[in-house]
Amino acid sequence: MRWLYSAFLWLMQPRLRARLLRRGTHEPGYLHAVEERFGRYTMPPGQGYVWVHAVSLGETRAAAILVEQLRQRLPGMRLLLTHGTATGRAEGLKLLQPGDVQAWLPWDLPGAVGRFLAHFGPRIGLLMETEVWPNLAAACRARGVPLVLANARLSESSLRKARGLAWLSRPAYRALAAVWAQTEADAQRLRALGAPVQGVFGNLKFDAEPEAAPLARGRAWRAAAGRPVVMFASSREGEEASLFEVLKRFRADVQVQRSLSAIESGASGVQWLVVPRHPQRFDEVAALAQQQGFSVSRRSAWGDAPPAPADLWLGDSLGEMGLYYGLSDVALLGGSFAPLGGQNLIEAAACGCPVIMGPHTFNFTQAAELAEEAGAALRVADLAAAVPAAAQLAADAPRQAAAAARARQFAEAHRGAVHRTVQAVLGLLGAAGASGRR
């Protein structure tokens, strides 16, 4: 039945191109090398790449840990790194070495996928976390390219959607050479779709070490701020407006202010920092804050100097989450205060930044639950509860220090996924090589 799916995608091509043009008005990266989306490339063809697909920013950062370890075990490895988003591609530039290639993963059209595989001839394909495409999986299997879902996760909602399209999803998952799940719950959901789960390895993101220099700079800026700093990390559309409404009520509530007298020093209180998840929304969030009567100081204007005073700081830069977590005493978890599934809290924990999260963390269920059990995160009902909870924690230095220590311990306790994944990749490459020699 894949031909119905393929026919639908073929008919959708004009719309897909139009969507790229629309997105490109806000993020010019989407207008780069558009023909790669259709399997047409300007770089010369090659063979023998280790291919890693990291669709967006978070997957690319997880892939960085794996790529670094694979290079150590596979001297002379040539990397083919593919993406689906402009932020992922920009982040992926940091991973490239001479001989490596970066490209868009083509849309899942049979012709485009065939041209992609013929052009690059990968030895193995590693899809990070969730990206499984029916025509891609079928084509890799037909060509003898082992295609793996690494650091794999699947939420209950995604499972329900996949079951609704079982005629399409089941053959795609069955075509994979292996699946290495983050958690046993993920493994069970993936098995329900016919995926060949061969191990539960944990989450690669636990193995990431925060960059020391940005983290240290953030901590120095926090000390210079002279008051507690609370960040809304990776906030999503709709959440900032809710936060600003809560902050207005919070600041006007005399009783709340009295109950938080420990954080008040004269007219100073908590410094709020908002870091939107999507860069195309930076200007929108700044305008929204100003419309609500908040003065705004943007990271893009700071340079190397500490942040300028303002009601709100806006983190309008990419690749600096380590700096922002260092700058913050506490972080609110974006995507968890609206039914969006939450963002990953592992980087915050590794940076020693305790997290306050809302009720919606279904994209990272186990990590959120384990963090809560370890005392590295606190769950609240909504932003109205999160704002005073964060302010109180940030202002209570002994309590904040204890929570930060628990966050670091939590991150360290769950490392090891990268070693298990690398061993499994080497095993598959060895098996594929032996099969080829036969």
Automatic annotation (TrEMBL):
Compartments, as annotated in UniProt: Cell membrane
Purpose: Involved in lipopolysaccharide (LPS) biosynthesis. Catalyzes the transfer of 3-deoxy-D-manno-octulosonate (Kdo) residue(s) from CMP-Kdo to lipid IV(A), the tetraacyldisaccharide-1,4'-bisphosphate precursor of lipid A.
Gene Ontology cellular-component annotations: plasma membrane
Pathway: Bacterial outer membrane biogenesis; LPS core biosynthesis
Pfam families recorded: Glycos_transf_N (PF04413)
PANTHER family: 3-DEOXY-D-MANNO-OCTULOSONIC ACID TRANSFERASE, MITOCHONDRIAL-RELATED, 3-DEOXY-MANNO-OCTULOSONATE CYTIDYLYLTRANSFERASE
One BP term from GO: lipopolysaccharide core region biosynthetic process
Entry keyword set: Cell membrane, Lipopolysaccharide biosynthesis, Membrane, Transferase
Reactions listed under catalytic activity: lipid IVA (E. coli) + CMP-3-deoxy-beta-D-manno-octulosonate = alpha-Kdo-(2->6)-lipid IVA (E. coli) + CMP + H(+)
Family: Belongs to the glycosyltransferase group 1 family.
InterPro entries for this protein: Glycos_transf_N, Glycos_transf_N_sf, Kdotransferase
Protein name according to UniProt: 3-deoxy-D-manno-octulosonic acid transferase
Residues at the catalytic site: E59
Residue ranges constituting the 3-deoxy-D-manno-octulosonic-acid transferase N-terminal domain according to the UniProt record: 33-208
